[in-house]
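ugh ok so i messed up the first submission bc i forgot one of the chains. this is the corrected input, ALL of the components this time, i swear. 980 residues overall. if the numbers dont match what u have on ur side tell me asap before i send this to the collaborators (the ones from the other lab, u know who)
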Amino acid sequence: MSSKVSPSRPLRRESVESWHLETDVLIVGLGAAGASAAITARDAGAEVVVVEAASAGGGTTALAGGQIYFGGGTPTQKACGIEDRLEDMFQYLMLASGPSADEARVREYVDNNLAHFDWLVEQGLEFKPEYVKAKLNNTHGDEGLIYSGNETCYPYDEQARPAPRGHKGKAKGEGGGALLMDTLIASAERKGAWVLYEARALTSIVDEQGRVVGLVVRIDGEERCIHARGGVVLCAGGFIMNREMLAQHAPRLLLSNFPLGNPNDTGMGIRIGQGAGGCAINMHEGFVSLPFYPPSCMVEGILVNGKGQRVVAEDVYHGRLGEEMFAAPDEKFYMVIDSRNFEAMEKPPLGGYSVAAVGETIEELEAELALPPGMLAHTLAFFNEHAAAGQDPLFHKRPPYLKPLDQPPYAAFDFSMGGGAWFPAFTFGGLDTSLDGEVLNAEGEAIAGLFAAGRTTCGLPRWGAGYASGMSIGDATYFGRKAGAAAAGC
Amino acid sequence: MSSKVSPSRPLRRESVESWHLETDVLIVGLGAAGASAAITARDAGAEVVVVEAASAGGGTTALAGGQIYFGGGTPTQKACGIEDRLEDMFQYLMLASGPSADEARVREYVDNNLAHFDWLVEQGLEFKPEYVKAKLNNTHGDEGLIYSGNETCYPYDEQARPAPRGHKGKAKGEGGGALLMDTLIASAERKGAWVLYEARALTSIVDEQGRVVGLVVRIDGEERCIHARGGVVLCAGGFIMNREMLAQHAPRLLLSNFPLGNPNDTGMGIRIGQGAGGCAINMHEGFVSLPFYPPSCMVEGILVNGKGQRVVAEDVYHGRLGEEMFAAPDEKFYMVIDSRNFEAMEKPPLGGYSVAAVGETIEELEAELALPPGMLAHTLAFFNEHAAAGQDPLFHKRPPYLKPLDQPPYAAFDFSMGGGAWFPAFTFGGLDTSLDGEVLNAEGEAIAGLFAAGRTTCGLPRWGAGYASGMSIGDATYFGRKAGAAAAGC
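and heres the new structure output, hopefully the right one now
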C-alpha cells in the first residue's frame, strides 16, 4: 500500500490486497454519535466494529457538561411541574437556527425527542427531576433541568413560549458528559460492539461505482484495510483543533483562546468524507462564547463597548453575548456593575475575566476606562431611567435581571478579547447528510455506503448566535442512532 | 454515457467511448479569468479550447464597472502625480484581507501588479491618466483613477499610506468591465483560442490516478467528451445565483436583493472541482454592500441604528458600511443629514434608498423615526461637539466628510434591509488553489491536470469587511494568466 495515504484520495478497492477485518458496520469514533450508532446497529443485528483514535472512548462529549436539549413534556419537565409543548420547542429551535435553519431536521428531532429521551434512559441514563431556576451554565449538583439557551430572552420569548429544556444526567456539576459517555459505552459493549482503540482511520476504500466499502485504518503502526459490508459511519468529531482547517473555513474561530474539544477533533472525519465525494457545508459557523455567568448577578450589569454604547441584552445566553466579541475582536468590551454586586469581584467567576476599573462615580469609571467622555454616563442614565420603570427600550432585557445600576461605586470587568477572559469555541460545520445520516455530495446525492453523525456533520446546531447548550449532544446521540440504523440496513 | 451526469461524480476515463475534441488546454468560461488564461496559454504555444455556457463571452466582469486594483506606482498614478509604494499597497491589501488573509497570494499579486498592468495595456486596454478625487463607486466619465476602497479611512490610513488604486479602462461610467472584456476576448481570438459558445461543462473526466484529463460538455444538447492533454482550467465564476449553495455555505448572502453576477454564476466550476477532489474554502465570505454614494454629500451624514446609536465611520467604502446591515438584518438603520445636503433628496441616489422622515428638529426626527427618545439627540450632540473640533472619538471619521450636522431641518434615509435600498452581493469562496492555479484537495495536494482562477477560486478578495473595488478583476486576470500558463505546461 502507498505510504502516502491521504483522506483526500480514497483507496480503490481493487488495490486492497487483503482485508484485515470484515464487519457489517464500521464506525469511526466512540464519542456520543459513534456510541449511539454502535448501539443501534447492534440492536439491528449487525456486526459492529468501532475504530477510536484515542486510547479510551468518550470523545468531546465526555469533556462536556452533558446538557441534552429535550422538551415538549419530558418526564423530567413534568415531574418539575414545567409545562412545555413540542410546537414551542420547534419554534424555538427554528429561531435558534437562524439563517442556516434546516426545518426538516429540526422537525425530525423535535418529533422524536421524547422517544429519544426514553432511549437514553433505556441505556441506563438517569435524570434527577429537579429544576434549578438560576442563570447557570450547568447545575452545580446533580439536578436535571435548567434553562440552557435564550428561551426567556427577547425576541424568543415573544415567539415561542419558554420552558427549560437543558437536561443533564444525574451527575454533579460538569460531570454530565462523562456520565453519559460511560453509560453509552457500557451499553455498546454489553450489546457486543467491538472497539479497537488507538486505531486511526486514514481514508476510505471505494469500489468502481464510488461506493464506500471500507476504511484504511492505522493499527499498531500498520495501515490495515477493514471491510464494511453495510456501511462506514463517520463520527470523528469536529475540527476545532485543526488550525489550518479553521483558517480555510472558519477564520473567526481562530480567535478563541479555549478550543472546546479533544485532541482528535482535527476534522479527519470530514476530510475522509470529502475525499469520498461528500460535501462539507456551513463550515464557517460554530459555537463561540464568553461564559460570564455564574454568578447570576453579573447578568444585572450593562455590557458596553469601547465607545460606551450598550451592545446586547445582558440576560442572553453566554454564546449570544460572546458573538458580539467575536464579531469585533479589536473592540473593547466592559461589563459594568454597581456596588450591590461587588461580591462578583471576590469570587473568581467562570469566564476568567478581570476587573478593569473601579470608580466612585460613573464619570470616574468612564475616565479610568478611557472611554469617550460622556458616553458611558449617558448610556447608564438612559438605562437606569428605563430600568426603574421595568423597561429596556434598546435591547429588551427582561426582569428579573433588569435593575437600575444606581448604587455607586461602580466596577467594570474586561470582556474584551485579549483581556484575560476565556473565549471557548467549537465548530458546527461538517458533512451534509440526509436525515438518515447518509453523506451527500454537492448535488445532494447520497454516497453509497457512507454515513456520518455528530460534529463530523452539519447537524442540528448551525448558528452560533442562536445556540443553546444541549443541542450538540441531542443531535449527536439522536442522529448517531439514525446513521447506525441506516448503515445496518434498517 | 449515463444520462445522469453529475459534477460530483467524475466520469472515469475508461468509460469514454470517443473524444469529441482534443486540445492542450481546456478552459471553462470566457470571463476575465478564462480570457486571461486563454491568452496566456496561446502565448505559450498551447492549443486552447474555451467552453462558454452563454451565447457570448464576458461573464460577470462585462457587467461590472471595471475597476482593477493596481498600485505602487502605475503609469496612471505617475501621470496623475500620485505617489504610491508597493509596500503600502501590500500593507493595505493585507489589512483588507482580514482574518482570511493569504499573505503569499497578496505578495504575489502586489509584486507582479505593475507588470500585469503593462500586460493589460499590451492586450489593448487603455487607461486615461486622470484622477477623480470625489467619493465615487466609479468615475462618471472615462477617467482612469479613483479611491476604490477604505484606504483613507481609520484605521487603514494609519497603517498604510493611502493612494488611489482603482484603475478603470478608458470607458465611460460603468462601461469599464465591458471594455475590458471586449479587449481580452479580441486578444484571445486574435491569438487563436477557439471558443465554443452555448457549451456547458458538466463534469470532469479522470484517469486511474485521479488526474483530470478532460470534461464532459453539453454541446447542441449532446454530452460530449473533450480531452485536455495539458490541463483543464475552471473559470466559471462564483455561486451568487445558486440559492441552494448560498443556503449551504453563505446563508447571509441570501439577504442580498441584488445579486451581482451573470445567470451562469451557479457555482458549476466549484462543484466540478469538488467532484474531482478539490477543496472549496472560505465559502461563507462575500462582497456585500449598500452603495450609498454618490452623492458624496451623503457621506457627511451620521448612520444610526434603531437604537439611535452610531455604528460606523460614515466615510468608509460602501462595502464596509453594508457589512453592518448584513450583520444585523432585523435592525433599523438610518442615515441622518441636515439641510445643507437636502439636495440628496432631489437626486435619486445610486443605492435606491428612500427618505424615512424629515424633522424641523432632531427631536422631531427622532419621534418620526420612533427611536427611543433621547438617544438620537444625544448621539447628534456628541457627534457635533467633536466634529466641530475636527474629531470623531467614536469611529474616527476623517475630514473632509467630518462636519457638524447643525443646520436643521434634518432628514433620515432608510438604510435598513427591506427598506427599499439595494444590497448587492457576490461570493468570495471557491476552490483552494496554489499560486500557480493548481486546484488543491483538502490536504493541500495539487490535483493533476486541474487548474482554476477567478471567482471559481478563493483568490485575492477574501473578506467582505475589507474589500476594495478592483480586487476581483485584478485577481481574476492575474491569476487567470497564471492558471493558463500552468495548464500549458509552463
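quick check: The first strand of chain B starts at residue 11 and ends at 12. that seems consistent at least. DSSP finds 13 helices and 22 strands in chain B.
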